[in-house]
């Protein structure tokens, strides 16, 4: 089956090369037909799992589109970008992620030039997912670029989702100063689209990030500012943050532990939940003295006193 597909691919390449040849009777290359043949060849190579050859065919298809003067440039640019993105996916199949991302980023630039920013942003998002398991820094860059494209198009719901991905990865990378900035931007966007419950969650994430930065003032400010959000005052989120900040300020290790291990924080996104359970108060903190157990030493003493009082009987 694979051999048959490879033979078909080579037949399509031969036809493509013939389309590009000129002669006395054919003055101009037929780029349109050549692009179609290279595209068919690429699919055949892909089906035969010959990914390097498929990549080369897609790149030749893209070249034919950009050289074609028959149709409007912007239309052809879109098709060229699609072919280059597919070349990137062939690199992905071979686990050559850096090369894959290079092709996808190039395609995204062409989508932008073509006037299809949504397609560019979605391709950047896909690229981020591809590179995330092996290069978190590059994934952050791609997610932020994608968010920026959506933001410029006033598509804030899509933008804020991608910003959220970048923020979580910044926390994982321990780039907490940048994470704090990204979280504030997320919160502002959620406020703009009036998703106030998500603003509450972002405030909690901000407090955890700022306390890990040892910046109590910034953490407190985030909570104070959030009281202007409808429904924040008296909410589970605000009560938890007030309790956490009080415990942190008073170096009460037990109080901080209780809040950080509460379901509200433990079931946040994993990167923020890890911040919660690893939070420590300054200077090692202090623990409250445990209450005397019932029936313990003090309880026994009270019982003895009562026995002494009645030891001589009632008279």
UniProtKB/TrEMBL annotation:
GO terms for biological process: intracellular protein transport; vesicle-mediated transport. Residues 283-315 are annotated as: Disordered. Keywords: Coiled coil, ER-Golgi transport, Golgi apparatus, Membrane, Protein transport, Transport. PANTHER family: GAMMA-SOLUBLE NSF ATTACHMENT PROTEIN, SOLUBLE NSF ATTACHMENT PROTEIN SNAP. This is Gamma-soluble NSF attachment protein. The keyword Coiled coil applies. InterPro entries: NSF_attach, TPR-like_helical_dom_sf. It comes from the Eukaryota. GO terms for cellular component: Golgi apparatus; SNARE complex; vacuolar membrane. It is a peripheral membrane protein. Interacts with RAB11FIP5. Interacts with VTI1A. It comes from Takifugu flavidus (sansaifugu). Residues 290-303 have a biased composition (Low complexity). Residues 304-315 have a biased composition (Acidic residues).
